[in-house]
Amino acid sequence: MCNVKKITLCMISLILINLSIVSSFDAKESSRLNGLKTQIGLENRLKSLEPIKPQTIADPPFPELSPPSKFVTLSQVIENGKTIHYEVIVNNPGYLRPAYEEYWHSSIGRWSYVPTRIHYALHRLFTNYDVALSEWYDFEQNMGFTIPMFQNKTDLDLYIVAFQTDITAVYTLGNQVVVVGNPRRAGVQVITIKTSAIHPSNTEESLLVQLSTQAGEEMDYALISYISPDFRLKQKE
Questions:
Q1: Which of 232, 212, 203 is nearest to 162 (CA)?
Q2: Backbone φ and ψ of 234, nearest 5°
Q3: Cα–Cα distance, 87 to 78 (Å, whole number)
């Protein structure tokens, strides 16, 4: 009887020892896998931040629209172009652009690529239409600024964002739109113009939107495709 008890105790002890070994192994394996997942996650975040290898990247770090084949000097657009009516939808003279936004962090990844961040930081003029919500979302996140959207169904708006500038006039000639303003150290203005007020000489080419001083000196520029004012109506057909 004593032998049976001893054997039973020995078996229980062996089982407990084995369970302890298995549990220890599982804990180590789980820790190893978690460490591996963390390493892979950090490597993926690093890929979203910079190129895999050191290299020189041209600006912009993505394909850009070609400028219109024909364009004239800013002074010519200001002197000979048509004045366009514009609506000011945002006017914040005290606004200071942040150096970094939290959603640019590599843990999000979508807007964290450093060459792209540098590209947008170099510019103070931004343009867009409110025709694609996903594109609009990227537009705002890359710019680091949120603006109202109106989505006019019959007369499409072109949105123009100018940082550190007081806008005084807008002119158009051919495939050019010139936004004239006075440079400032701070502030942001957002205006809209009707695409029906733009009469490009070639609707198949891009629009060259330029930010200019009163003296006709370019401060920045943006290229954007021309979209007709009845864009939304055509989508319904």
A1: 212
A2: -65, -30
A3: 19
Chain position carrying tokens 């975040």: 45
Closest C-alpha to 162, from 142, 182, 148, 176: 182
**Helix 133-143 / helix 114-121 crossing angle, nearest 10 deg:** 80
Length of the chain in terms of residues written: 237
Q: How many CB atoms lie within 10 A of CB 160?
A: 23
Euclidean distance between CA atoms 116 and 49, whole angstroms: 9
DSSP-derived 3-state class of residue 175? coil
Q: Which residue has the tokens 């169904």?
A: 153
Whether 102 shows a pLDDT value over 70: the answer reads yes
Distance CA 222, CA 68 (A): 12
Neighbours of 174 (CB within 10 A): 20
Q: What is the pTM of this model?
A: 0.83
pLDDT tens digit sequence for 14-38 = 665 665 665 665 666 566 656 656 6
The per-residue pLDDT for range 138-176, each reduced to its tens digit, is 999 999 999 999 888 888 999 999 999 999 999 999 999
Query: Is residue 23 classed as helix, strand or coil in its secondary structure?
Result: helix
Residues 6+ apart with CB under 8 A from 37: none
Distance separating alpha carbons of residues 27 and 21, to the nearest angstrom: 10
**pLDDT score, position 52:** 87
| Residue 207 Rama label (left phi>0; alpha psi -120 to 50; beta) | beta
pLDDT tens, position by position, 26-69: 666 566 656 656 666 667 788 889 998 999 999 999 999 999 99
Q: Which ranges constitute the DSSP H helices of the chain?
A: 2-49, 74-80, 114-121, 133-143, 231-236
